[in-house]
Design brief:
The protein is an all-alpha fold and 414 residues long. Helices cover 78% and strands 1% of the residues. It is built from 17 helices and two strands. Strands 1-2 form a two-stranded antiparallel sheet. The longest helix has 38 residues, at 3-40.
Length: 414
Amino acid sequence: MLDQDRTRITYRYERVRALAAGVLEAAAVVFLLLIAVREFNPGPLSKALIAGGGSFGLLLAPWLVSHARAVGWESTQAASRLSALSAVCYLVIAFIPLLPVFVLGSVVAQMASSSIVPFLTQIFHENYPQDQRGRLYARTVVIRIAAAALFSYGAGWMLSSGSGRYQWLLLIFSLAAALTSYCLSRCPSKSLAATEGTHPFRALRYAREDRVFRQTLIAWMFLGFAMLMISPMRVEYLANPKYGVLWRGEALTAGLVALLTGVIPNIARLFLNPLWGWLFDRMNFFILRLSLNAGFMAGIISFFVTGSSTGLVIGAILWGISSAGADVAWSLWVTKFAPAERVADYMAVHTFFTGVRGVVAPIVAFYLVSGIQPAVLGCICVGLILIGSGFLIPEIKFGRGARRGTALVEEVSE
């Protein structure tokens, strides 16, 4: 198959998959936790598990990549089957309204959805031209963001109009995961390249051998831990009556929670994502990442510290603007530095460490806020982002990724 045919087919199905991805993103970011808080009144551990469900999939990414390689699966086969598992889990929790089942099903569904990330990155690397990768990816993300915003608005209205309707949302999540599975199965792909060794976490050695990669992972651990602590707290902060957050003097409805955590941020992402995709192809990566960090810090302070309706809106907008760039940076940054045949491995390492902090961070956050105010937690997270940014500054000279592949790896590991 010609390269241009691979690009055309992948881009076609990615645009369709983006609609489903928007629905699943809204589920993971807003609605699974919102449903749990409003319908089941869970404890801190249950809320933390739901909030960190996707991180378990990222934690398993190196093993899944290794297994797919061992059995000879193509990237699309692995990703499609994992998405099908997610669809089944959403279907189960829609028909069994019990808290333990809801927590377990939510975790496994998100785990299956998030674990496809290294395979997606490999697909993009194989099928999108290097000089168009950020732009093509950003175009599909625009569709995903629009779908997430529209769905967040409609689903928030549905939940606000009466209890007992959350099962319909879970059925929609199941259909979205099934559509994802179908679209991935139609994309062209290759079997993952054979490598020396069979240990499932063999790829972790690249973090030891590649200094720039290692330094970036350390920085991302600090800033990522902060983001994964504060992200679910947006829903908890607004939805839990004990924090007394008011909107123009009145308690927030489920629709307003969805507006501030789903709709407004996604509208901001919708408009800014193409710009960030264009910048990713042209800008020094580390300067790009530092700019995003500054936006997130400002958004956290506005949302959690100001204590006003205006602050909530401004914080939601800044969160959306920064998230637009973070979408592209998080998903594609290894393509700037990894050897072509090791993109899935590098991404698996990146997602593994994301999973580590993603499992721990929500647990820490929900237990911390039992003793401190969300505003204090927000300030702690800003401090962690500043520490992470400090690790990135010395790497700016490597940020353009002009010398890609093995040559760069060999240079920085000397």
